[in-house]
Amino acid sequence: MAKYFDVHPENPQRRTITNVAESIRSGALVAYPTDSCYALGCQLGSRDGIDRIRSIRNLDDRHHFTLVCQNFSQLGQFVQIDNDVFRAIKAATPGSYTFILPATKEVPRQLLHPKKKTVGVRIPDHTVTQALLAELGEPLLSSTLLLPDEEEPLTQGWEIKERLDHVVDVVLDSGDCGTEPTTVIDFSGGELEVVRRGAGDVSRFE
Q1: 139 prior amide bond cis, ω within 30
Q2: Which residues contact 69 (CB under 8 A, 6 or more apart)?
Q3: Please, are residues 34 and 44 in contact by the beta-carbon 8 Å criterion?
Q4: pLDDT band for position 75 (cuts 50, 70, 90)
């Protein structure tokens, strides 16, 4: 059974955040809120966590996992960014965007796109996520909590607990955070490509 934690969306309880971070360090798979729907997350180097996310979402090896980072300096450790891209991403973060970029050697190989050697990164604008990332001290390896054959992500913590009780270890609930996933921008091919239009405003990149 998954542990269930209900936290205040603007002032999350410190003890709860600490407990969840400790669970992640111990190998837990967590369902947690972001600024653009709930996500599944685990520790950066957790092969078991990756396999479990793939199983829950029925993903193949071409899926771009996302490193959810606390801030820009943390993000910069894991992806290669030139000056123009730096300015574009800096202006849009924190926010509901995922950026696909060439990965550095800091990124575990199993996270990379098999051909492109790229990874997704984002900095969420969400109080609870930021508190968790600050406590964790490293990015969360994440993927949108969108189940196979369903059109919209799960958005209620109690429903996530009910439906995924046997496959996740922790559910962190801070209330409804919407069903629209991030806007995905791919900078890895030289030319900017909008891969998915979502919660983030695309006009700033067009």
Answers
A1: no
A2: 75, 78, 121, 122, 123, 133, 139
A3: no
A4: very high
15 in the Ramachandran plot: left (φ > 0), alpha (ψ -120 to 50) or beta? Answer: alpha
Longest Cα–Cα distance in the chain: 47
Percentage, residues of the chain above pLDDT 90: 79
Q: Report how far residue 165's alpha carbon sits from residue 89's, in angstroms, rounded to the nearest whole number.
A: 36
Q: Are 121 and 61 in contact (CB under 8 A)?
A: no
CA-closest candidate to residue 20, choices 5, 35, 2, 37: 5
Query: Which tokens is 138 given?
Result: 């490293």
Q: Answer yes or no: are the C-beta atoms of 8 and 174 closer than 8 Å.
A: yes
pLDDT digits (tens, 9 = 90+) for 105-164: 999 888 887 788 899 999 999 999 999 999 999 999 999 999 998 988 888 999 999 999
DSSP output for the chain = --EEEE--SSS--HHHHHHHHHHHHTT--EEE--BTB-EEEE-TT-HHHHHHHHHHHT--TT---EEE-SSHHHHTTTB---HHHHHHHHHH-SSSEEEEEEB-TTS-GGGS-TTT-EEEEE----HHHHHHHHHH-SPEEEEE---TT-SS----HHHHHHHHTTT-SEEEE-S---S---EEEE-TTSS-EEEE--SS-GGGG-
